[in-house]
User: What shape does this take?
Amino acid sequence: MGYGVTSFPDSATTKQVLHAQIEEQQALLKEAESLAQMGSWKWTEINEQLHWSDGLYKIFDKNPDELITWSSFLENVLPADVQLMSDYLNDVKTNENGCVIYYRTQKNEGIRYFSLNSKPHTAFDTDIIGAVVDITHHMENQQRLEDSKLLQSRIIRELDENEKRYRTLFERSIDPIFLLNKSMDFISVNESFLKLLGYPEVNESAVSLQTIFSSMAEYELFTNTIERDGQIREFEGALVSRSGEIKYCLLNCVFISDPVEANCCYQGIIHDLTLRKQAESEMLVAERLALTGKIARTIAHEVRNPLTNINLALDQLMEELPGTNASAKLFGDIIGRNANRIEELMGEMLNTSRSKQLNLELTQVDDLLTETIKMAQDRINLNQIKLIVNRGDGLPRLLVDRSKIEIAFLNIIINAIEAMTPGEGVLNINAAHHGDQLTIDIADNGIGISPSDIKRVFDPFFTGKQTGIGLGLTSAKNILHSHNAQVEVTSNVGIGTVFHIQFKLSN
Assistant: This one.
């Protein structure tokens, strides 16, 4: 039985293999150092000499033949970090687990950032080994990130400040402001909007854009225009409050686009023209009354003198004619009655248009209504009118000329009675106190007033009745106007009419 002989590689072959492996590992290490932007070194305290890897020479653009010492290494370190590096070296000598530090170097006009991780080489000598990683790119990215965060923070802060500023402007604006979505539903309104229309809040169940317009035609014109043009300017329309009060307003609205479609909206602002409209109406009435007064005085002057002559001539004629002449007596009576009627009309015209001296006194509203109703009671009973009177609690006193205000109320009540069918009429009189205003509503279920006539109801000589000369409501308007009271009329043909009277209470 023979034995085989095992062959072993000779020492030369072994060295070649090991050398090849070492070169391969060194090549891999260099490649890894290059990719990771890092290098390693060893420091010997005896001669302060630094032994760098090829990767470290590459990082610092040094010649591999150049002798590097700790002192020469510190030459490129920023002065602010030199002491930090010296302290770090001492810490490493006494800490067998090693230490990490971050430092900076100056290269041309730029700053480079490095991470240095070092530890003692052995537990018995003072040599130190370390690894250096170029983290400049990372730090620059981090700085850009920080700058981006700071910029974002500043933008957010500016947006917050702008939002607060515009929110304050929105909420504290004297003019009502509203936001609508593309479906014309309210998104937000300010306090002035709620105050103008008398709503505690705005939501879909309480109010919509359509509900605040008193006219469907105006609503459709408004929405069609803004959807077509993206804006609407100086749109004059009548809005209706929660309590049914008409507000004459000027609306401006514009479409606000947004990259996010859900954020698109219409922004509008409302200017309340009600007081201006009332002032214009009062001025128009005053001008008409002044014109009526001028006409009345002219007519009175031109008519009364001939009328006096007619009366005198008639008296003389009746004395001369025989008393048995029946025709003369008949025609004389006709002439006399019509002359007296003309005299009465002249007096009514003058009384209606003449500025009246007021005898002001504090008067209970209950007493005013009671006395006025007493004066109209016969007419109410005769026409079989159902009377409903609602007096609010705690009605204040008014500083008025009692007799004249009673005449004004009586004229309006008589107008309501004559507009209703006997036996079917219902007369509602409501008095209420709201803040600094006292309101009195006189409503009937009569024939109503057409839209074309409602603006003329207070005009002198305008009347829809076969009898009367159309001065009763003019006189009522003049009396109320002299007391700084407002009166408005709303009516529906075939349903009825409401006279809404407002007295401004003194503080």
Remarks:
- The chain has a mean pLDDT of 80.
- Residues 8 and 14 are 10 Å apart (CA to CA).
